[in-house]
C-alpha cells in the first residue's frame, strides 16, 4: 500500500485512544507529538503538519465524541476530513476523442505511466487506445513502450529511426485516427527549459492535446510542489501522475505539495508492473490509509473475468454470516486472481478479520502460500462436503488427502482455517458498526444492494 509508513504511524499515534472516552493532558500531548512525527516522516511540510494536528487538538478538546463512539474513531474521522481537504479533489478525463500528452523530467516514469494509463483506460472504459512514442532522445524508448504493452491490445506507434518528434506524432495520429484515446510519450529533460517548452508546444499543437499530464516521482517529496507549479505555469499542465509511491515514505509530501498548485493529482503509480496504477481520489485514498477500507477500490481490483456483481456478491456474502467452504473457495479464488493478498487487504477496513490490515509480511506470505494448497484440496471434495465441512470426519479426510496428494494434516488445516474464518465472519456480521460502515461504502458504489441475491 502506498504510504504504509504513514498509515502505521497514525495508527500507533492513535493507539493511545483505543477504547477510551477521555484522555488526560499528558496523553493528549503525547498522541499529538507522535502524530506530528508520522506526518513529518511522510514529508508533509511543517505548516501542514501543524495545521492538521492543531485542528485535531481543538476538535478533541471541544467536541465530545457521539454516543457509542470511541475517541479513536472520533479522531480518525477528524483526520479523514482534514487529510481529504488537504489533498484536494480529483477530476475526470473523458476517454473519448481525447489526447493526453505525457511530460516530465528524466526518469520520473513517463514511459511506464504512458503504458499503464493506456491499459487502464482500455480496461476500465473499454475504449480503443493507441500510444505514440515521441521520445526521440532516449535510445530504446519505442522498444520499452512495446515491451510494457506486449500483453495488451493497446496499439503502439513509433518510428525509432526518426529524430523529428513532431513528425512522428503527426504520422501516429494519422495511423491511429480511429482510436478513442491517444496517449503520447515525450522526451524527458533535466529541468523544464525553453527548448522543452517549445517542443511541447509544437507537439501539443499538432496533436491537439486536450490534456497534458505531468509525471513526477514521489521520491522528491515536497519539492514536487515547485516542479508542478513550474510546469503548470509554463506548459499548461492539466493533471499530475505521481509515480513510485510504493518505494518511498515521502509520498505524503509529494501528494500534498502538488495539491496546492492547482493541477490535480489524477493517478498514482504503485509499482513497476503495468497494472500498478490507481486513479487518485483523495477520499478513497485517505479512507484506506486510515484503515477504513475502500470497497469501491476492492471491486475495481476484481479480475477481468469476475464481473462486478459477482465481486460484490462475494463481498456481501462474506458479511452475511453464512459461510460454507464454497464461499471461502470463491473468496480465495477472487483473492488469488487479484494477485496479492497484500493488495486486497489494503482495501479492507482494518478491523475486518480481526485487524488483518496489521498483519505482518510473513503472515501474508504464508496465507498466499496456503491458497494454492487449499485450492487443490477443495478440488478433491464433493459439493456436499464443501457445503458442510463440519461433517468431514477422519475417513473422509484420508480420502480427500489421497485424492489431492497432500497430507491429512493439510486437509485438517483447511477445515480449521474455515472454522476460524467462519467465526470471524460471524463476529463481523454481529458487529453493527462495521456492518453500517460496509453498507455505507457499498452504497457509495451505486450498486443496487436489494437486487443482489446472496
Ligand atoms: N517502483 C516503481 N517503479 C516505477 C514506477 N513508475 C516507473 N517506475 C520505474 O522507474 C524507472 C523509470 O521509468 P520510465 O518510465 O522509463 O521513466 P521516464 O520518465 O520515461 O524516463 P526517461 O524517458 O528516461 O526520461 C523504470 O525502471 C520504471 O520501472 C512506479 O510507480 N513504481
Ligand atoms: Mg521514457
Please give a handful of descriptors for the protein shown.
20 helices, about 450 residues, 8 strands, Rossmann fold, 3 domains, alpha/beta, binds magnesium ion, 434 Repressor (Amino-terminal Domain), Four Helix Bundle (Hemerythrin (Met), subunit A), binds guanosine-5'-triphosphate
Please give a structural write-up.
- By secondary structure, the chain is of the alpha/beta class.
- It has three domains: 84 residues, Four Helix Bundle (Hemerythrin (Met), subunit A) (Up-down Bundle); 192 residues, P-loop containing nucleotide triphosphate hydrolases (Rossmann fold, 3-Layer(aba) Sandwich); 157 residues, Orthogonal Bundle (434 Repressor (Amino-terminal Domain)).
- Helices cover 55% and strands 9% of the residues.
- β5, α9 and β6 form a beta-alpha-beta unit.
- It is flat, with a radius of gyration of 25 Å.
- The structure holds guanosine-5'-triphosphate and magnesium ion.
User: Can you name the CATH architecture of the largest domain?
Assistant: 3-Layer(aba) Sandwich
The parts where pLDDT drops under 50 for at least 5 residues are 353-358, 444-454
The outline comes out as: flat
- Residue share in helix: 40-55%
- Percent in strands: 5-15%
CATH H-level superfamily title of the largest domain? P-loop containing nucleotide triphosphate hydrolases
Number of strands: 8
The termini sit apart by 30 Å
Strand order of the largest sheet: 3-2-4-1-5-6-7-8
Biggest sheet features:
8 strands, mixed
SSE string, helices as H and strands as E: HHHHEHEHEHEHEHEHEEHHHHHHHHHH
> Structural class of the helices, strands and pairings?
alpha/beta
Rounded mean pLDDT score: 82
Number of helices: 20
Bound molecules: guanosine-5'-triphosphate, magnesium ion
Reading off the top of the CATH hierarchy, the class of the largest domain is best stated as Alpha Beta
CATH topology title of the largest domain:
Rossmann fold
Domain module tally? 3
Radius of gyration: 25 Å
Amino acid at each position: 500500500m502506498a504510504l504504509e509508513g504513514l498509515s502505521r504511524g497514525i495508527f500507533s499515534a492513535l493507539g493511545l485512544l483505543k477504547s477510551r472516552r477521555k484522555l488526560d493532558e499528558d496523553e493528549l500531548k503525547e498522541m499529538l507529538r507522535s502524530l506530528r512525527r508520522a506526518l513529518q516522516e511522510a514529508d508533509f511540510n511543517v505548516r501542514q503538519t501543524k495545521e492538521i494536528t492543531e485542528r485535531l487538538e481543538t476538535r478533541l478538546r471541544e467536541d465530545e465524541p457521539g454516543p457509542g463512539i470511541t475517541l479513536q474513531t472520533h479522531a480518525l474521522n477528524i483526520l479523514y476530513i482534514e487529510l481529504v481537504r488537504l489533498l484536494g479533489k480529483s477530476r475526470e478525463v473523458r476517454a473519448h476523442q481525447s489526447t493526453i500528452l505525457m511530460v516530465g523530467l528524466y526518469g520520473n516514469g513517463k514511459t511506464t505511466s504512458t503504458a499503464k494509463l493506456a491499459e487502464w483506460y482500455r480496461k476500465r472504459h473499454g475504449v480503443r487506445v493507441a500510444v505514440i512514442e515521441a521520445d526521440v532522445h532516449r535510445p530504446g524508448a519505442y522498444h520499452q513502450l512495446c515491451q510494457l504493452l506486449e500483453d495488451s491490445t493497446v496499439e503502439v506507434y513509433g518510428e525509432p529511426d526518426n529524430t523529428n518528434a513532431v513528425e512522428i506524432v503527426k504520422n501516429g495520429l494519422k495511423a491511429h485516427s480511429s482510436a478513442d484515446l491517444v496517449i503520447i510519450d515525450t522526451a524527458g529533460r533535466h529541468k523544464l527549459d525553453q527548448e522543452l517548452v517549445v517542443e511541447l508546444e509544437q507537439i501539443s499543437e499538432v496533436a491537439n492535446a486536450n490534456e497534458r499530464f505531468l509525471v513526477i516521482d514521489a521520491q522528491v517529496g515536497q519539492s514536487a510542489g515547485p516542479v508542478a507549479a513550474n510546469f503548470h505555469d509554463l506548459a499548461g499542465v492539466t493533471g499530475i501522475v505521481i509515480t513510485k509511491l510504493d518505494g518511498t515514505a515521502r509520498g505524503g509530501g509529494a501528494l500534498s505539495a502538488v495539491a496546492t498548485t492547482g493541477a490535480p493529482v489524477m493517478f498514482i503509480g504503485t509499482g513497476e508492473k503495468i497494472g500498478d496504477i490507481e486513479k487518485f481520489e483523495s477520499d478513497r485514498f485517505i479512507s484506506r490509509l486510515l484503515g477504513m477500507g475502500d470497497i469501491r477500490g476492492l471491486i475495481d481490483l476484481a479480475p477481468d473475468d469476475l464481473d462486478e456483481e459477482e465481486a460484490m456478491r462475494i463481498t456481501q456474502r462474506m458479511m452475511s454470516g453464512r459461510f460454507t467452504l464454497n464461499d471461502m473457495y470463491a473468496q480465495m479464488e477472487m483473492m488469488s486472481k487479484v494477485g496479492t493478498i497484500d493488495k486486497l487487504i489494503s482495501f479492507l477496513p482494518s478491523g475486518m478479520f480481526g485487524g488483518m490490515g496489521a498483519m505482518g509480511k510473513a503472515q501474508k506470505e504464508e496465507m498466499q502460500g496456503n491458497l494454492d494448497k487449499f485450492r487443490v484440496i477443495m478440488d478433491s471434495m464433493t459439493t456436499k462436503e464443501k457445503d458442510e465441512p463440519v461433517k468431514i470426519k477422519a475417513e473422509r479426510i484420508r480420502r480427500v488427502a489421497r485424492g489431492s496428494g497432500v497430507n491429512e494434516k493439510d486437509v485438517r488445516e483447511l477445515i480449521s482455517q474455515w472454522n476460524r474464518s467462519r467465526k470471524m465472519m460471524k463476529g463481523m456480521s454481529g458487529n453493527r458498526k462495521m456492518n453500517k460502515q460496509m453498507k455505507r461504502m457499498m452504497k457509495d458504489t451505486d450498486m443496487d444492494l436489494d437486487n443482489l441475491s446472496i
